[in-house]
Write a structure and sequence with these properties.
The complex is a heterodimer. By secondary structure, chain A is an alpha+beta fold. Chain A is built from eleven helices and eight strands. In chain A, β3 and β4 form a beta hairpin. The longest helix of chain A has about 45 residues. Chain B is rod-shaped, with a radius of gyration of 65 Å. Classes of the chains: A alpha+beta, B mainly alpha. At the A-B interface, α4, α5, α6 and α7 of A face α1 of B.
């Protein structure tokens, strides 16, 4: 334990120097007071380019070093595709035909006021793309390892992933969905777990995106669970919603709306939980880092660094935990929707 | 507010990536991995079962062997007992026969001795009789060389006759 704290402290000391490196350009850039809230919101929000760092040339002019990403817009029946670098970090407008696009508070709007459907390949999408590539490479590699030496003990990456896959199967999916039907849902649950987990981990890398802390990301996955739950639900599930057994019919007037809302609250909770946990973690880390700039004191680097490192370790745990909880609750909701209600009641009476 | 407003673009890309990853992993990762794991656990299960079977088979064979061994041992003991009994019987029979034969021979010998002895005795008697006769003859011849002697003898015989 002492050793661990000593290590954390050693890492924290690095923040004195890195903090100094960060601290100098930022407030000087505009001379204004450091805007912690703006910085934090900017970091957890999506972006059209992948911002890496800023440099300052000899004239004191700040330059953003970032990877431009494709902007894909659908406006008034026209599909416009261009690189985000054409905006020059919001300094210029992009004109395509009669459409004039400009960056307004991190969003692309048409100056003529037309509705812009924004399908841009943003930073979060790029991060998700990397996560997807990692997932495909890792698990097809693991599958090949099984094909290469059938019936043998796993090794390497295979040995790392097998317990996780079996954990999801044996301790998450089977207990909730049951031995008989779990095979249909297992691929979804495994993909869900690893997709969330890898995206969470990529979000923890400094300069990384915050894909899994974005409400659109969590909404999409929650909607998948909602759809699967309600499509695969059996008669018993709908009976419990529209005609709760053992409830007098006047009560049903209240119960039916409550149950109908209940269909949506479950995935809604999934959406909010993942979003809030991941975003909160990022906000905590960014807030701690902001202290260095707020106090304009290099010595703050040590305590801030200590907490940042500690919180980052916590976030590593949260990354896996939230992926697990999302998967567990998804299996639970699906399991509840497809379980055999009659048998359960019979069992309850005995 | 912007933080909790989902963007249509990200929803689209998340759905797209998630579905692609799901479909590809289902076909090229989860199915082969889970099949292999199931296959392996089945083969391990089978191996354990066959090991269990081999163990029971082994113990059965061992018990069988032991039974066979015990049977063989019993058989051997029985055979040895029988052989010993036969040998004993043979010996005792031979002994009996020998004793009998000996006694018979002794008896024969005794008989032979007896008859020899009788024969010898008879021979001796005959010899004695012959000798006595020849002696008597010699004596008689000597005594009856003279007439008086012959007369005396006749007288003697006569006396004997008279007595009778």
């Amino acid at each position: 334990m002492t050793k661990l704290v000593a290590k954390l402290f050693a890492i924290s000391l690095l923040f004195i120097f890195s903090g100094a490196a960060w601290a100098s350009p930022e407030p000087a850039a505009d001379g204004a007071k450091f805007d912690a809230k703006g910085m934090i919101l900017h970091h957890i929000a999506d972006d059209y380019s992948w911002h890496l760092w800023d440099t300052k040339d000899e004239n004191g002019q700040a330059h953003h070093v970032s990877i431009p990403l494709p902007v894909i817009l659908y406006t008034d029946g026209n599909l416009d595709v261009f690189m985000s670098s054409e905006f020059h970090h919001g300094e210029q407008q992009v004109i395509r035909g009669d459409r004039v696009y400009k960056l307004d508070h991190g969003h692309i709007v048409d100056t003529n006021g037309k509705k812009v459907w924004d399908f841009s390949f943003t930073k979060n999408v790029a991060s998700m793309f990397i996560a997807s590539l990692i997932l495909l490479l890792v698990f097809t590699g693991v599958a090949k390892a099984y094909a290469r030496k059938p019936g043998q003990a796993p090794s390497g990456l295979q040995a790392l992933m097998e317990p996780l896959i079996l954990f999801i199967r044996d301790d998450v999916v089977i207990p909730n969905i049951g031995e008989k039907k779990y095979k249909t849902y297992l691929p979804y649950m495994l993909t869900l777990f690893f997709f969330i987990w890898v995206n969470n981990l990529l979000g923890l890398i400094p300069t990384g995106a915050n894909a899994s802390g974005n409400i659109a990301f969590t909404l999409t996955l929650a909607v998948f669970t909602l759809l699967i739950t309600n499509i695969s639900a059996n008669a018993g599930y709908w009976k419990h919603i529209f005609a709760m057994p053992g409830v007098p019919w006047p009560m049903l007037i209240i119960m039916i709306p409550v149950e109908l809302i209940g269909i949506f609250t479950k995935p809604f909770a999934l959406m909010i939980r993942l979003f809030a946990n991941i975003t909160a973690g990022h906000i905590v880390i960014l807030s701690l880092v902001s202290f260095i700039f707020l106090f304009k004191n290099v010595a703050m680097g040590a305590p801030v660094g200590f907490f940042v490192v500690a919180i980052t370790f916590l976030e590593l745990f949260v990354a896996a935990l939230q992926a697990y909880i999302f998967t567990l609750l998804s299996s639970l909701f699906i399991g509840l929707a497809i379980e055999d209600h009659d048998h359960e009641h019979e069992a309850a009476h005995h | 507010m912007e933080l909790i407003t989902p963007g249509i673009g990200l929803i689209f890309w998340t759905s797209l990536f998630f579905l692609i990853v799901l479909l590809l992993l289902r076909k090229y990762a989860w199915k082969p991995i889970l099949d292999s794991v199931d296959e392996r656990s089945r083969s391990i299960e089978e191996a354990l079962q066959s090991a269990e079977r081999a163990k029971t088979e082994m113990s059965r064979l061992k018990a069988e062997n032991e039974a066979l061994l015990a049977e063989a041992r019993a058989e051997r003991d029985k055979m040895m007992r029988e052989a010993k009994a036969a040998a004993d019987k043979l010996v005792s029979e031979a002994h009996e026969k020998a004793t009998e034969e000996g006694q018979r021979m002794i008896k024969l010998a005794q008989e032979a001795i007896q008859s020899e002895r009788m024969a010898a005795l008879t021979e001796v008697k005959n010899q004695v009789a012959n000798l006595s006769l020849s002696l008597a003859e010699k004596i008689l011849r000597n005594q009856l060389n003279s007439t008086p002697a012959q007369e005396a003898l006749i007288k003697d015989y006569m006396n004997d006759l008279k007595v009778n």
